[in-house]
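Lab channel / #folding
Pinned by the channel admin:
"Please post every new chain as: sequence first, then the structure tokens as a reply. Keep commentary short and put observations after the output so the thread stays searchable."

First post following the new format, from NK:
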Amino acid sequence: MSRAPVVTGIGIAAPNGLGAERYWAATRAGVSGIGPVARFDAAQYPSRLAGEVAGFDAAEHLPSRLLPQTDHMTRLALVAAGEALDDAAVEPGGDAALDRGVVTAASAGGFEFGQRELEMLWSRGGEYVSAYQSFAWFYAVNTGQISIRHGLKGPGGVLVTDQAGGLDAIAEARRQLRRRSRLIVCGGVDGSICPWGRTAQLTSGRLGTGDDPATAYLPFDERAAGHVPAEGGAILVLEDPEDARERGAPRVYGEIAGYAATFDPRPGGGRGSTLRRAIEGALADAGTRPGEIDVVFADAAATPALDRAETEAIAAVFGDRAVPVTAPKTMLGRMYAGTAALDVATALLAIRDGVIPPTVNVRPAHHHPIEVVTGGPRRAPLRAAVVIARGQGGFNSALVVRAAGPASPDGRGAHSRWEERIMPDRPLELDELSTIFRESAGVDHAVDFDGAAIDTEFDELGIDSIALMETASRISREHGVRLDEEELAGATTARLLLDLVNERKR
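Reply from TO:
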């Protein structure tokens, strides 16, 4: 296969939203998921903040038999993988199982599980250590658990390149498709928010030590002083476009158009970063000129030297302040092997909806020769994005994602052949809108727009702007109608929203 593979499913676990649409709505709104560490008492540690997936209860999402044998980050990975496969309408097992595989990235394995079992070993003896410790701690455990749970019996692998791993795993998935696999589940979900994990992370010297979530992670800012550790990431379903069409994939988010990786020379040798070569290599692999890139998702290390190296590389490839640059991870923290995979998912959602999510809290320093998107989301026609990721030890990776079809009439992303096929001719009905609000927006109370409620303002019903954006994303996916923030602001009741959507469908 030489065709660019397409992404047909996305699953996300992030500190500001569990699930792709909840995450995307919160990210567009600039909602932060960073706060004081809740998973353990971090009062005595120099770094006391984290990006945690708040309120996550694995028992609500996974069978009880999996809970004793999995670390917290593996549970997040299983939930994200399940969402991605459901999104892509992939049925588990069957005759195709040997042609479907899993490639994930990891930085540390199941540290929290491992710490607990080591404490049992020290305090009570080896007979009290769980047999599941034999694999629950391991780097490849997410790959194994996802493949077992979903009957994916084809190629399997794990990439361990620190925070570059998410891109490297997607690239390895592309290689497996070129070797005639038909579908690869790929990406990364990571997290070691426990005493053992925090101790290991502190050795990098790159963690911020501030206690204010609004100023703790400020890449490209004069105040940059390290990053906030986080948990989460994204899992993608990657397929050859013809295989996806043959099995009837319901949607395509975009294509993995190009990739390259480099390795920096040893520090102190007088040679600089090779990040520029990685970006140029990814563009060459995609057959794309720098001027065709609409947005760059930055690595955003938030240390002065690393920020300077990245902004210089971006400016050298694209020109000074010639392309919008964003780092929505400032709302989340850095999720190690999960970060770059989530950036890819975010880039695909940005292309779909024609909006660049913001870099929050940052005041870009004038000496950085890049244009950082701050203050709020930016509406823009998007066709192609570059995602940059770097791992400690010298790993550099860059990946180009691109809309999979010709430009849509409104300039937002692509008008894909899949979108034509799945967009229903029927109008959006009131009961369906109620269901979308409940399922997509996660509204707790019953949302039945009967009687006077159809003309009641959303805010009076307890429906906030994030819930509206999640609902708009679901309408876009299922009815092919994209609504921007200005249109949503004017659709203040269920009747107005129905009329707007159905008018656009005619």
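NK: The chain has 16 helices and 16 strands.
TO: also worth noting, The longest strand covers residues 254-263.
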